[in-house]
Amino acid sequence: MDGIGENLEAVRRRIAAACARAGRAPESVRLLAVSKTHGPEAVRAAAACGQTRFAENRVQEAAAKIPECPDRLEWHLIGHLQGNKAAPAARLFDWIHSVDSAKLLEALDRHARAAGRTVAVLVQVNVSGERSKSGLAPAEAPAVLELGNRLQNIQMRGLMTIPPLAEDPERSRPYFRELREWRGRWAAELGTQLPELSMGMTHDLEVAIEEGATFVRVGTGIFGARARPAPAAEEA
Ligand SMILES: *Cc1c(COP(=O)(O)O)cnc(C)c1O
User: Fold this and answer.
1) Could you tell me the distance, in angstroms and rounded to a whole number, from the CA of residue 232 to the centre of ligand 1?
2) Ligand 1 atom nearest 221 alpha carbon
């Protein structure tokens, strides 16, 4: 677990510097520590350094890990969610960033109600149109956002995207910018607030912050390289 504290400090400095350059308040960006493939001891080490928000991309892995972690951490699901895992997802996670259908949203609402809780939701938008990426096409998103506003045990909070994999962080910028522009348009059309934009990972978090990210999702930058090759940013 050596190095997690230093890594966290370095990521926090990157976030603070990007906020300063962008003229944003540092507390307007929240850091999610992506603990996928790492065990509860890594989560405990990060939590001991003051990290409270964690993200996982698979329900099964999270179900085994979360009970082994300190209480009162906030858990976010950032990977593709299958309908048949909506029940455990609605119990385990405080936030779900990867909602990509009306049917899934309705299932989450039902299971959240049964569990006596409310789940904060982001709609994943496939801005790039890449076939390999999950997420809703922009044309399909407003109907799901509108449904989310009507469901009792769902809090519709905003949008998430994953740009195509590219080494140069500047390549992510047009996708981040487009997500922010859609957010403005849809919030106005629906007359609601969509305050959260979940975008930016280890290599492109500065660009994401410049384009308005409120959640950045950082795995490698905090926990180091993943042993098992996690199918980059897409997993059931
Ligand atoms: C794994 C993952 C991340 C973190 O990626 P790093 O490059 O390790 O920071 C972010 N978002 C999603 C959706 C992921 O699956």
Assistant:
1) 7
2) 9
pTM value > 0.85: yes
**For the structural domain made of 2-222, what CATH number should be given?**
3.20.20.10
Amino acid at 169: P
Indicate the pairing of strand 74-77 with strand 53-56. parallel
Report domain extents, the chain: 2-222
By CB atoms closer than 10 A (0-12, 13-18, 19+), residue 152 is exposed
In the reported structure, the alpha carbon of residue 204 is separated from the centroid of ligand 1 by a whole-number distance in angstroms of 11
Evaluate: CB of 36 within 6 angstroms of ligand 1.
yes
Reading the chain (236 residues) residue by residue, the pLDDT tens digits are: 669 999 999 999 999 999 999 999 999 999 999 999 999 999 999 999 999 999 999 999 999 999 999 999 999 999 999 999 999 999 999 999 999 999 999 999 999 999 999 999 999 999 998 887 789 999 999 999 999 999 999 999 999 999 999 999 999 999 999 999 999 999 999 999 999 999 999 999 999 999 999 999 999 999 999 876 555 555 44
Tell me the best of 32, 34, 203 to mutate to test the pocket of ligand 1, counting ligand atoms within 8 Å of each CB and taking the most.
34
State if residue 201 touches ligand 1 by the CB under 6 angstroms criterion.
Answer: yes
